[in-house]
Design goal:
Radius of gyration of chain A: 18 Å
Structural class of chain A: alpha+beta
Largest sheet of chain A: 4 strands, mixed
Strand content of chain A: 5-15%
Oligomer: homodimer
Helix content of chain A: 40-55%
Largest interface: A-B, 41 and 41 residues
Order of helices and strands of chain A: EHEHEEHHHHHHH
Number of helices of chain A: 9
Chain lengths: ~240, ~240
């Protein structure tokens, strides 16, 4: 069976957390909305499954994953499913709940990152909420960034061994997601993050370790990895970064 | 075994979604932070588990649930656990993923409700972000409210039978959460919601059906139900409602 991933074709966005898991699992998948319209793919194929006319239980929004007869929406839910199927989650119930809990905390983190450039309305342009974005981004960099990264740093510090993972002795899907968050924060807020990285060396080291894994390194070097840009979650607006 | 729920003692907040599931399940639980400090309960007991010194895998934030040796954080994760244990979730894998997906969509909805009064910083007072809140609330009422409620209305409309539930033929935990969202929206935005309810009769009917269930009705009438107030997610600031 080949998975079908449905996500906006021009951004990493939330879909990227799913792509990283699929790549690390070496799962067969097609990134449907990046395919050709004339071959039945592209954005129309995505919109068709969203509109609820052909699907009994349509997702609220992308990303969603078609796995045979299943259509699974919501990023942490897709990862819960993939993690268990592909050895990217702990095996025990307690471990799986912990991995899901970590992923949900990362999901909260991502919402706050997104809202630094869209504090008023996701349907408005950044330019129409720039003043509010300045205020929100300042609070994010001053208060929230260290709250989240400090949390993950403490978890890794408390974990036994030098090369710690977030949930157990080997890599699980929240590790892939934390890699993506660090990569995205470096893109969006290079000045703030550079100053902050000294305070969370274990998080940075985990990022580097994930990036060096053969399948992830190959993916990052491929054209399957969409570059960061100013339409995704992590956007580089210099005026929102530290001075 | 008696569950221990840890949540802020003076608000419904995210903890309420867990309380509703515990009440419907008639599970034995203690709402720890509402207990007495001199008996080892109260807010200090909550903070102790958050600080990471006594717990190997501390949660990022309340609510969290102690279930024997397990400490489970993040509302949708707690409900995933309770739903399966107490017959409040579908039995099939597909059904459980669908219930989790619904709960994650409700979680996104709740973040947007919260941010109507706190668009800039959760650590600042409402009064310090009132102008931004007006803008964000207006967009929420104009665009987002109908997007979310319309989605749930369509799901219920597509479900067979007159008295539909969101996931299968009987009540599951996302139904309890949707009840709470409707109750909260009515409190926070009475004018906007009153106008909107005609467009989502099935959602309103589901709310009423949940409220009438004997265990939920008994809970709502008890002093275990904390009244809505201006410290929680759903706050009534008349200036944010429709004119």
């Amino acid at each position: 069976m080949r998975y079908e991933l449905y996500y906006w074709p021009t951004i990493q966005g939330r879909g990227e957390f799913v792509r990283l898991a699929l790549e690390e699992a070496q799962a067969a998948y097609v990134d449907v909305a990046r395919g050709l319209k004339k071959e039945g793919a592209g954005v129309p194929a995505l919109l068709k499954l969203l509109d609820g006319k052909t699907v009994a239980q349509p997702p609220f929004a992308p990303p969603f994953l078609k796995a045979g007869p299943l259509i699974i929406g919501q990023t942490p839910n897709i990862l819960l499913f993939l993690g268990q199927r592909h050895g990217l989650a702990p095996r025990s119930e307690a471990g799986r709940l912990w991995a899901n809990q970590l992923q949900l905390t990362i999901a909260d983190f991502i919402v706050e990152v997104h809202d630094t450039h869209h504090p008023i309305a996701s349907g408005l342009y950044y330019e129409d909420q720039r003043e509010e974005a300045r205020r929100r981004a300042a609070d994010f960099l001053e208060v929230r960034l260290s709250r989240y990264l400090g949390y993950f740093e403490r978890l890794l510090a408390a974990s036994p061994g030098k090369a710690a993972w977030l949930a157990g002795r080997s890599l699980t899907y929240p590790d892939l997601s934390l890699f993506q968050v660090v990569a995205g924060l470096r893109y969006a807020f290079p000045r703030a993050v550079q100053r902050f990285e000294r305070k969370c060396p274990r998080v940075v080291e985990l990022h580097d370790r994930v990036a060096a894994r053969p399948r992830i390194a190959a993916y990052l070097a491929s054209d399957r990895r969409i570059p960061f840009n100013e339409q995704g979650i992590f956007r580089h607006y210099p005026e929102l970064d530290l001075a």
